[in-house]
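Sync notes, pocket subgroup
Present: LS, DG
LS reminded everyone that the earlier model was apo-only. Rerun requested with zinc ion included. Inputs:
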Amino acid sequence: MGKKLMKRAAAVLLSAALLPSAATAYADAPAMTGDLNGDGSVNISDAVLLGSYLHGRMQFTREQFALSDINSDGSADSLDLAALRFIVAANSGRLPHGTWIASDDVSARYFWFDGEKGTVTDEETGAKKSFRISVDGDCFTFDYGDASEEARVSWLGSKAFNITWSDGRLETMRCYSDGPLNYDDLLTGQWIGSGTVNRVYDIKGVNGSYLDTGTNKGTSFRYEKDGNDLYFHTGRNAGTAHAVITPVDSVHIDLAWDDGTSERLTKHNVEQINGITYVNGILIANKTYDLPSTYNPGAILPEAQAAFNEMKAAAARDGLNLWICSGFRSYSYQRDLYNSYVNRDGKAKADTFSARPGHSEHQTGLAMDINMAGDVFNNTREAKWIAAHCAEYGFILRYPQGKQDITGYKYESWHVRYLGKPLAAEVTDSGLTLEEFLCIDSVYKY
Ligand SMILES: [Zn+2]
């Protein structure tokens, strides 16, 4: 009989251990199976209570009866007592390993455990504290050097446990990753989502909010990222949503939610430094974002010039001669150029082919016109070679055909922008313009 009991108990334990992989284990659980005295922990005192009940020494409430049915066979009996004792014994003395997130309704903290010591990092302040940890049954002792604190632990499966601190505060700790916390791995920043749902996300650490741009409704959340699994907790009642993350490139990730919706997120970190706009670290000059008149590198930047020289040498091996017919253009040069076009053709027409001062990509020192800046260059062997090969040298064709509404400029087969090889390859492979790739627009705001 003992053997049979152990088998049942082991099956129960196994199912408890498997629980956390299901999204439900992350939901704000109400009462916990086995926690008969409602202290937030499943431990030996619950087993004592169940024993008293089974021996007729006490009455159970309806809720206690339900929580006692550990093997879910519809009754609270000696099998449940054996299963409960087994769970208590198996979890007794167990210590977490890796990075765990402790959260209650107001705050989140990261705990890193290596078995005997660790660190706790406050999400809001970033303050770190080291500790040594020891375990005695279901009691953890955190020794911070100058102070120590005891806490009682109740495992909710292999990847989550409740912890009740000496001041009575209850937190749920969930496994975040096997290794130390890597802040680069978090989704901190702003993201623009497009797909079945359209949202703008603002994420910091493990907290965030998103605005549904369709309904204009904002939602706050706390999330856990465990490898390519993403768990969103949106409050006590809304529960947990799970998505599988597929990284696309350095700027995009795809999310496939369990409800069948999917989104592509585009990183959207727009910074203004000394009046210069960087989107995800990429210097941008277009009709939306202008450069200050004081930004004046004086020439094509050395890295872009070296990349052009390399491209020119490669083209020469294919029997083609490439040269820069217009490279760096200063703010004042562009101002005079634009004004001369306005005088000749009018403002509306000039805006289709010439940038207003501050808005020319030529002022960046990262853009250049090759051989001939005019439609006669289209379809030449040189233009075709540039379109096919410029990404190999870190350039993109900045104003492709048919994208005038997006880039703000008509097709220019001669104008390339230096991005560096990895990014130029990503943009080219995406088939998108730089504006589409970064989810930005190019429209004069004045
Ligand atoms: Zn140009």
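DG: The chain has four domains: 2-91, 98-177, 185-267, 278-438.
LS: The radius of gyration is 31 Å.
Action: DG to write up.
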